[in-house]
Amino acid sequence: PPVYNDFDHGADGTTVTVANSDDGGESAIGGTSIGTGASVTYNAVTPIRGAADVDCTTTGTATTAYVYGANQLHVNSDAPMAGRARLRIPVLTADVGGDRIMLVMGAIGDFQAVARVMPSGLIELQNAGPTTVDTSAFTYAAGDVLDVCVRMVSYHQATGQIEFDIIDPGNGSVLDTVA
Q1: What is the SS3 assignment for 79?
Q2: 26, 67, 103, 111: which is deepest, by most CB within 10 A?
């Protein structure tokens, strides 16, 4: 069965943990990474969908804040994977590199698909290098809400194919394909 979590049951302002991320009908997250001065909390006041979502907030120049999945897939050949996340484009400040990683999907080893929002508002598809594979045709602004869908086939631990669709969550139309 698919692994999912909609975070709808989270209490506003509460730090997201493995223990409070499963309401009994969903998959618990694998964990969080919360750097100094950062936070990963439920947001039930201004969620981008449903009753609540997760806000990952950073401060400083080298701080991280993210949630990661619990499922691990050990692959060596032709194993398709797919994922979808609804994301709000952050305000891009003069932090490390001036960009933000929004979504990462990877196989065991070095093969990864990374969606990175650049200061220009373009979304880059990168591998684990990080080497830019492709760039979105459109620019996106801080506050834009998008669904990012990733499809990946890992042929071996360090090779494969990756593709992102950027979707308007309001009407389901594909805005951009980055492959």
Answers
A1: strand
A2: 111
| Encoded tokens for 59 | 């401060």
pTM, 2 dp: 0.70
Residues 11 and 53: beta-carbon distance below 8 Å = no
Q: What is the pLDDT along the chain (179 residues), one digit of tens a residue?
A: 555 667 778 889 999 888 888 766 666 777 787 888 788 888 888 887 778 888 877 766 556 777 776 555 555 556 677 777 778 877 765 544 556 666 666 655 556 777 888 878 888 888 777 788 889 998 888 888 888 887 777 666 667 777 888 888 888 899 998 87
By 3-state DSSP, what share of the chain in percent is helix, strand and coil, each rounded to 5? 0, 40, 55
At 170, the amino acid letter reads: G
Could you tell me the two tokens for 109? 């080893």
What are the counts of helices (DSSP H) followed by strands (DSSP E) for the chain? Answer: 0, 12
- Structure tokens that stand for 3 in this block: 């692994």
Instruction: Return the closest-CA partner of residue 81 out of 22, 2, 169, 25.
Output: 2
Q: In terms of Cα–Cα distance, which of 105, 97, 36, 22 is closest to 65?
A: 36
